[in-house]
Amino acid sequence: MANKPAIRTGNSELIALIADEDTVTGFLMAGVGNADLRRKTNYLIVDSKTSVKTIEETFKEFTSKEDVAIVLISQYVANMIRFYVDSYKKPIPAILEIPSKDHPYDPAQDSILSRVKGMFSSESVASGRH
Amino acid sequence: MSGQGQRLVVVPTVTMLGVVKARLIGATRGHALLKKKSDALTVQFRAILKKIVMTKESMGEVMRASSFALTEAKYAAGDNIRHVVLESVKTASVRVRSRQENIAGVKLPKFEHYTDSSAADSRADLTGLARGGQQVQACRGAYVKAIEVLVELASLQTSFLTLDEAIKTTNRRVNALENVVKPRLENTITYIKGELDELEREDFFRLKKIQGYKKREIERKELEARLAAEISSNRFAMPLGSAGRNILVAGGEKDEDVIF
After folding, report:
1. What range does the record give for the signal peptide (chain B) (predicted)?
2. Between chain A's N and C termini, which has fewer beta carbons within 10 Å?
3. CA distance linking residue B28 with residue A55, whole number of Å
């Protein structure tokens, strides 16, 4: 299993965030926000003026960053860049789709959950056959 | 020969047979071990699947509660609280620590969140000091709870992906051993055995043949020797006698003056 990415342990890592303003505010209040020396933040506020390209680039940046362990992304934002989210296969950082206030959560659209559900049915079918 | 492509290219010797047999034993043992590993991983995998579904469903509720708390805070502290919050971002106080968990030789990442007390700025505590402070604190608490759930979900999800990958690799190995390596070794063993049998039969046949040749040779020699013996005894007996007789006869009949 040489091609597995090494799992970093022990060090402290950040939670990155791509969401609408309210969600970001809430999580910042809890204290996940981080700004480095150049005032580069680990979150992106998506509003009506944010272009899909910006979201794409931020998503790529967060997923390639060394110190990010989890990327939280609002589901409606994830839907805008669904292709990138679905084609992302690495275990770390983990991508989590979260519901936002204005957009109710739809489990069917979640890339992981749909895989889980698919596997569940196939697993139960497979176990039924045994 | 059947299964020509499905065997190793080896010289059919007894030594090689031993080597291939040892390899077959190794392959069988490896197959059993990998199968066990795959089973263990699958058990773990199913447990994680169930947990993921449960946590995902609970996540919706937690997020709703935290959104509601935020709305309350906004109502109590005024809408401009978000600017205060966005401006006071410095270093993260809630961070994630990752460690490994070993399940049947597969390293699974596990996240756990912790609060870095040194980075927890006092400014955040003062947010909403003028009004709505209690709501703001409640909102903070709600979001910290949400982060707890999300971090757990994240580690479940990473474990899910890693395990999925590991199970696929293990199953591929199990199948490769079962369907490719083992038949090939078995075919090689049968091939070597067949070839050795063939050699043995050939040898046996050759020995028999040689024995036959030798037997015939000996018989021939014996016969020859007997013949030779007979002939020589005849020669010693006959020519002397006949010549003597002839001479005697001739002498007796033709010329009495001839002495010999």
Report:
1. none
2. C
3. 52
Across the interface, whether the CB atoms of B92 and A30 are under 8 A apart is answered no
Q: How far apart are CA B106 and CA B97, in angstroms?
A: 19
User: Which domains are present in chain B?
Assistant: 14-197 (1.10.287.3240)
Residue B2 has pLDDT above 50, yes or no: no
Q: Tell me whether 0.85 is exceeded by the ipTM.
A: no
pLDDT digits (tens, 9 = 90+) for B37-52: 999 888 988 888 888 8
pLDDT recorded at residue B30: 92
Nearest to A56 by CA among A83, A31, A24: A83
Q: Which of B90, B95, B139 lies at the smallest CB-CB distance from A13? A: B95
- In this complex, do B150 and A33 lie within 8 Å of one another by their Cβ atoms? no
Q: Are A59 and A87 in contact (CB under 8 A)?
A: no
With residues binned 3-state (H G I as helix, E B as strand, rest as coil), the percentages for chain B, rounded to 5, are 75, 10, 15
User: Is it the case that residue B227 has pLDDT exceeding 70?
Assistant: yes
Contact B163, B110 (CB under 8 A): no
- Per residue in A107-124, pLDDT (tens digit) is 666 766 677 666 666 555
Report which of B36, B51, B28, B171 is spatially closest to residue B103, judged by C-alpha positions: B36
Fold of A14-126: Rossmann fold (3.40.50)
CB-nearest to B56 from A21, A34, A113 is: A113
